[in-house]
Structure formats: C-alpha cells, structure tokens
Design brief:
The complex is a heterodimer of chains A (428) and B (63).
Chain A (H helix, E strand, L loop, with lengths): L8 H4 L3 H4 L3 H27 L16 H25 L6 H25 L8 H4 L1 H4 L4 H31 L5 H9 L7 H33 L12 H28 L7 H32 L2 H11 L4 H24 L6 H28 L14 H24 L9
Chain B lengths: L1 H22 L6 H31 L3
The chains are: A mainly alpha (428), B mainly alpha (63).
Chain lengths: 428, 63
Amino acid sequence: MLRRTTIDQHQESLLRPLLNTGRPFLMLCAALALIVGWGVYAWIIQLSQGLGVTAMRTPVGATWGVYIVNFIFFASMAHGGMAVSAAVHLLKAEKFKPLARMGEVLTIVAVCMAGFSIVIDMGRPDRVFNMILYWPGRVGESPLTWDITVIILYFMLSLSFLWLTMRRDLARLADRFGIRGRLYKVMLIGYRQEEDKKIDRLAYWLSIAIVFLIVMLSGGVIPWIFGLLPAQAGWFSSMAGPYFLTAALASSMAAVTIVAAVLRKIYGWQEHIKPDLFRTLGVIVALITAFYIYLSFTEQLTVNFAGPHGEVAVSELILSGELSPLYWGTMIGGFILPTMLMLAQAIRPKWFSMTRTVIAAVVLVIAFWVKRFLIVVPSLLRPLLPFPSGTYSPTWIEWSIVAGTVALAVLLYAVFIKVFPIVEAQEK
Amino acid sequence: MIGYIVIAMVLLPVIVLIGAFVLEKPRNFRVPALLLGSLAAQTAFVFIFLALFGLLLGLLIPQ
C-alpha cells in the first residue's frame, strides 16, 4: 500500500525537523508553555471573577478590546498561507512550493486562535454552544453568526486540504518513524498511490474554493461586523471590506515571510528556499501595503472633508488626540518605512537584503496588530449616543491572555513541524 | 433575511466547486468520499467540542 519511492539527499534535508530535536528547541517549547500557562492562569481569574477584571467597560469606555483585536489579527493571519498555497496549485507557481505547507499550517493554527479569542471575549463562554443552538434563528440578521459559519467552513476546508495533500508524503515516511509512523498510518486510512492524481485535481478545485472564502471572510463577513453598524462612528463604511481584505493579505504574507525565514535559518534550507523568493514576497507585501496606506488616507480624507460630527470625533482622537502618537507611529514607522524599503529593493535589486526584508515583515505584522486596535477601540471611546467619552487601557489580565494565545500559536506550530513534514517533497 | 443570501453566496459556490471536482474525469469515488467524510467528521467534532467545552466551563464558572 505505502510508497517505496527513494528519498535522495536533496529531499532528505527537508526531513531535518523530524530527525533532529535539539536542546534549544525544547527550551523554546518550555518557555512558550510557561507563557501559555500564565495566560491560562489569567483566563481562570477572568472566568471566576468575570469580565470586570478587564479594562472593557460599558456604556462609557470600550466594550471590545485586545481580544477582538487578536481575533481580527489571527483571522487575517489565516489568509496569506492559503493564498500562497492556492497560487502554487492554481497558477503553478512552483517557486512558492516550499512555502505552501508552511502557509497551510499557519492558516490552521491562526483560525484556531481566532476562534479561541472570541471565546475568551465572551462574558459567559459556558454558553458557547448557543452559537449552534440558536444558529437558525440568528443567521437571518446577525453578521456575527455569518462570521462563525464562514470561519468554521474555512477551517474545515483548509484542514481537509492539508490532510489530503499531505498523505502522499506520509505514505513515503510511514515506515521510517516509530510512533509518528503509526500516526501516519492512521491518517493514511484507505490510501492508494493511484489517488495522487485525483488529489492534485482536488488541490486545484479546493484552492479556488479557498480563495473565494478568503475574499468572503476577510473582505466580507469579518469587516461586516463593523461596517454594517451605523450606530458606531468610524466603523460604518462600505469600504470596510476592501480595507480589511488588503490588511489581511499583507499581514499574513508578511507572516509567511517570517516563518519561511526562521525555518530556513534553523534547518539550513538555503537550497530549497532561495533569497529571490523573499524578494518576490517582499514586493507583493509592499504593493498590498501601499494600497492599504492609500485606503487609510482616503478614509481619513473623506471623514475630515465634510464628515458627520461623530466620525470627526473618532478621527480627531486618532489623528490629533490621545491615540495620535500610536496612529502616526504605526503609519510612518510601521507601514510607510517598511513599504518604502521593500519597494526600493524591487526597483534596485542590488539593494536587496534578506535580513532587512524579514525585519520589515516583522515590523509590518506588529503594525497591522496595532492598526486593528486603532480600528476597534477609538470608535467605542467616542460613542454617538449621549454618553461621555471613555478611555481604554488593557489590564495585565488582558495582556497575559493575549501573550498566552500568541505563545500557544507558536507552540502549536513548533509541535507540528516536529510531527509532520512541513515542506512538501518534490516528485522524482 | 439578508443573512440567508449572504450564507447562500458563500455556500453555493463552494458546493459547486466541490461538485465540479467530484464529477470531473477521471472519476474516483475514494477521494471525494474522503473529503466529504473529513468535512462530516469535522462538523460533528465542532458540535461535540463546543457542547463539551461549554459544559465543562459551566461546571467551573461560578453562576
């Protein structure tokens, strides 16, 4: 049943994460587990004492805070990886093939963390099953219900995609590893080598479905949580869809760049992941981010030219009010400078530096997190209803839980690469 | 009611695309069955997980 294809030295190097586990890796896992444990401790306090331990307040203050920011951030992160993978299968962009599975796994981990961030934000997470129970009655008018539906569908399709496309690699490796080999054999249920061609077609069709879902998720149901609310100044906008989609693609492809650079460095995959790949990724990320900067400018121009009072109040808060240092710091240091750097490398190839590209990608990922904060929170601090303006400064509980979810995401990714092949083997 | 249109907008193309894959030649029963089985198993898992997770938290959280 299993494939007996020989694995040459070139392919063998792709198995390094499965073959070698050093002390630094174990120390990293231990450190991440500690942060996760601290986050769980903070969450237990929140569960037992209620959301009052956070800085979220109503009616004066922000009712959504860093948990929702984290949700948007992780949901967005889920797109770049699948977009890269889809490009490989749809456009035959073989150059990106080493990154395809890295991206798919990033998607799975990020969607899990996005869902978890929502549960953390719930005042009564024990009622989480009500989302399913009352789904038929809510789906007609609740953007949150659309959101849950599309995210779960996206997750299931992505996981099925990952599992089915990984089976041919598992078949090659099942006899080679002890305990992991047994797990591979379970996952190879019903596998026959003849299915590989059909799997290639599956990858093609599912890639189209997944690209479509990316647009519907980050350009649709997630921004519609905000964009469909006229009662909330700063959110109500038909531009929310393209705005969120652009941010999702740029931030997640920047994340794929970081993951690829880290794995390349640790496992010595210089021959598989060439520097040119980073230059191409950098150019794509920079172009999308440049468009995002343009959308941000357009948004502020529209509001400030002759906007309604509520919209202007929110805009003032971020352009010249107490959040302005964060806004301008993010726009200039987080978006404009890294974008200029990456675009300059595209214009003058001799200026290209992989290190600078990766640093720019890290800065962009952080900047996009902060920008989501600047979308969610300011609007809630300047309500249209006759309540006074509020403030929001996350408590240590919130920061601990956010750190815990980020650490959990990295830990899950690290464990995955020790259990499954993270780069697809090339057919000989 | 607009929600039904939104959900249909999302689901119908996905169903059509999966249908196109299933019907495309060379036809193969095994891979579509695996895909649909995987989706069905995950749906069941999501339901059971959310129910058990809610139940567990219900026992832990002071009412």
